[in-house]
User: What shape does this take?
Amino acid sequence: MGLSEFALIERIRARAAGRDDVLLGIGDDAALLQPPAGQALAVSTDTLNLGVHFSADVVPADLGWKALAVNLSDLAAMAATPAWATLSLSLPTPDAAWLDGFLDGLLALATAQGVAVVGGDTTHGPLSISLTVIGFVPADQALRRDGAGVGDGVWISGTTGDAAAALALGDAAPAALRERLHRPTPRLALGRALRGIASACIDISDGLIADLGHLLVASGVGAELCIADLPISPALRALDDPRRLDWQLAGGDDYELCFSVPAAQEAALAARLGEFDVAPARIGRIVAGSGCRVLDAEGRPLPLARAGYDHFERR
Assistant: This one.
């Protein structure tokens, strides 16, 4: 069933939940929002394009979930609490069934995280989804990329490589890996718990080595990772595939957090591990210099085929 532009907007407005701090939401020229006193705003935008970030056969509900999750992961990396989101949709046809499925996924995650969709835009064109999320964090407690120091431990939440394996294997991938690809979990509670503990943080979207590399450049340091300490999911471990290590280090689409913790704060981190839905693991250390070296169990450097995903790399 086709929809007019304004019927499409009304369909979104009717399903979007509100918050007390939304003074005016969907339906006007702009939303009016009331930030809490003493909090800085954390803002992130991500775009998903058909044929680049997802294929035409992706279930609309999964696409809606992931479109919001990848943005929320950025707020998690900043130790922020999400509040509001705006949604911009480019659609080749205004299909009601597709839209309802998409909203099922997006709003399920939004409701779970207390996020209100407060505005956006709709237009005709190739399928493209752009979301902006806005959250709050005390300005002096926000996590950044530029605070890592020599001697800090390098930590990671969860496991990497699952989503990349699912993408590479397609329908042959185990269900657990496909779930990680289509329904990533933004580590928001962990991000907030790292306030005052982590010295720097980044979310892993383009691959562990690539994204850790951004943190290292911002902090002016290097890192050494031990491959024996890199956690791996049971589903990925069960695969007998020579690409497994490459998926873990450079696959991307993981949406876990990679962060540095000074030695003096590791006891504080250990005391809070039971509060998280995922157990972080220490995978290396910050060193003087630049770049990231990956070491085998005997401490020998491993050659890396690639660092991670680059949208503008020649393919």
